[in-house]
Amino acid sequence: MSSDLAAETEHRAEHEPGHAPRPWAVLVMMFMARTCVAIEFGSIAPLSKTLKTELGMSYALVGALIGVFLLPGAPVVLAGGFLAHRLTRRRLLIIGLACLSLAPLSLLVPVPAIAIAGRLIGGAGGAIVTLMATTSVSIAFAPEKRSLALGWLSTTWPFGIAVALALGGPLAQHSSVQLALLAPGALSALCLVVYMLRTPPSAAAITENTSHGNGFGLSRIEVWMAINIGLVCALANTGFIVFASYAPLFMIDHKIAEDTANNLVSLGPWLAMIALPLGGMFTDRVGRPAATLVVSKVSAGLLVLAFWYAPTTLVWIPMWGIAIMFGGPAMFLLATTCSTNAGRPASLGIFYAVFYLFVAAAPPLAGRLIDTSSGPGGAVLLAGGALLLVPIPLGLFLHSYRKYRADPMRAL
After folding, report:
1. How far, in Å, CA of 393 to CA of 330, rounded?
2. Widest pairwise Cα distance in the chain
3. Which CATH number fits domain 3-198: 3.30.70.260, 1.20.1250.20, 1.10.3210.10, 6.20.20.10?
4. pLDDT tens figures, 304-327
5. CA 374, 380, 384 angle in degrees (round to 5)?
């Protein structure tokens, strides 16, 4: 049996009539859930000044509240991938949304340790929701429609952050900072109620368990594939985060107005909401996710180097924003091919764990480069270099993939 036929047979087996929700209903629900994660992550930054003046928080504490949200990511997604073989995606999603709903309450307590603990709980819940949302969407959609669905799911991160940035400040100004802090938790609670009412317990149950090779139910080659595609994601996101963080400083050093620099880079989230679904649609139609991914990330890396060479040519930045996001759905599509549906929570758990570990180290490394070099140009070069390295782990992934499948996957 060819790999394409095997994948389609597996997909039909998991979606007998009456057994699972319709794919687009799953996507809408997971879109709502992951948007809640992004809103809660982005809810602190627009309130920074208000938190200092009204609640007496230091800027150091505000920064810590922003950063610790992603800290639990790696261990939590690994544990979530393991537990998905023993529980169900539905139960794990309920746990994740419940953590997101309750975590903001800790911010009302004037004790820094409690506030940080609450953000850690919220971050753990967000990691679970992210893992289960990606898993659920990838299983719900047939392979030929999966890239577009994952593209739409990927837009939840920039969309949610944009919503938090747009509404957090006005809500605190016209109502109260307490309401602005609690609003993300209320949205997560509403999403939790809707999910429990709309999704029966059997809809997200994992009916297979292919435990072999290790405790995650994956073979060694599946683990190796998940690690390599996780490295691809880590390098791509390092390029995005470091460039978006330090490109404004580089432009300011080259006599570009601070407002112009910040506004230009802030286009990134909005361009992402256009480029991600377009990239998913393109990948579904053309059917070559690996080629799409390489062209996307390498082009973005070359644009970063062009920007480093000529930072006053401002057209590089919007071109970079579109190029780097266009290959996102292809990357997530490849991440879903590391295992069968039954092993997907575990393989995606490894994928996200590698992502969290490397991305957490990228901003401090970029900051050190700035401190030890002549300025932010070193951080810009780090971003470009990370993007240009993407083909190396991707090549290792493809080599393993051709061993893993009975037939070479022509679509790659």
Report:
1. 15
2. 66
3. 1.20.1250.20
4. 999 999 888 878 888 888 998 899
5. 140
Domain ranges of the chain: 3-198, 220-404
Top pLDDT among 16 and 134 is at: 134
| Cα three-residue angle 355-318-244, rounded to 5 degrees | 40
Identify which of 345, 335, 91 has the alpha carbon closest to the alpha carbon of residue 211. Answer: 345
Q: Is 109 left (phi over 0), alpha (psi -120 to 50) or beta?
A: beta
Contacts of 202 (CB under 8 A, 6+ apart): 19
Q: Residue 146: name the closest of 297, 5, 32, 287 by CA.
A: 287
With H, G, I as helix, E, B as strand and everything else as coil, classify residue 212.
coil
Separation in Å, CA 26 to CA 22, 132, 135? 6, 11, 11
Give dist(CA 351, CA 296) in Å, integer.
20
Q: pLDDT value at position 6?
A: 40
Is residue 31 pLDDT above 90, yes or no? yes
**Angle, CA of 229, 8 and 5, to the nearest 5°:** 95
The CATH class, in words, for 220-404 is mainly alpha
Are residues 104 and 182 in contact, defined by beta-carbon separation less than 8 angstroms?
A: yes
Average pLDDT, the chain: 82
Which parts of 43-155 fold into alpha helices (H)?
48-55, 59-67, 73-83, 89-102, 112-140, 143-154
What secondary structure letter does DSSP report for 69? G
pLDDT digits (tens, 9 = 90+) for 343-372: 788 888 899 889 888 877 777 777 777 777
Reported confidence tier of residue 2, pLDDT bands at 50, 70, 90: very low
